[in-house]
Fold this sequence. Notes:
Layout: E1 2-3, E2 8-10, E3 20-22, E4 27-30, E5 40-43, E6 47-51, E7 59-60, H1 68-82, E8 91-94, E9 111-112, H2 113-119, H3 128-136, H4 146-153, H5 161-168, E10 175-176
Helix pairs in contact: 1-3
Amino acid sequence: MSIKVDMSLDCKGLACPMPIVKTKKAIEGLAPGHTIGSTSFIVDDSYLLSGDILFVDSIGRPDLAGKAEDWVSDLRNTLYTFYKELSQDLIVLPAHYSKISEMDERGIVSASLQDLFKENVGLNIADEVEFRKTVTENLPPQPNAYEEIRQTNMGKIHPSVEEEREMEIGPNRCAVHESL
């Protein structure tokens, strides 16, 4: 999805303070796979905000809505086609990290897309059937507050700031993990 300058976006139903948002700059949205509406953004032609699709040491999980078999192909397409066509110099800034070792000395979790294509096991499963099997057989337990987070993201419930913090506490369970 491309978002153009001065485009009006209808954000009703999302956890968004304003139902209509007017863009100031064009941005590119990419990346179904973690969920059908997953979006990644390229910022200033330098950074890839990968959301829950790509992490430093892993890849996103496609099963949170109970759709792993349906969405694993979207995940693979995003990772192996969309991302592969991007500048490999982009610095990936994921939404989460799993281990402190993923942080650099400044506390930043990032890596170049080129480095991730070399080192991230989830980006190096050439066979599509093997990718599907590896992803669907290595899913961690769902996040503790998954349903509440989902309802909040859709604007259906409105937790307090403290309740939001509580929902986010715990390990990153948005990724296909260690056994990859």
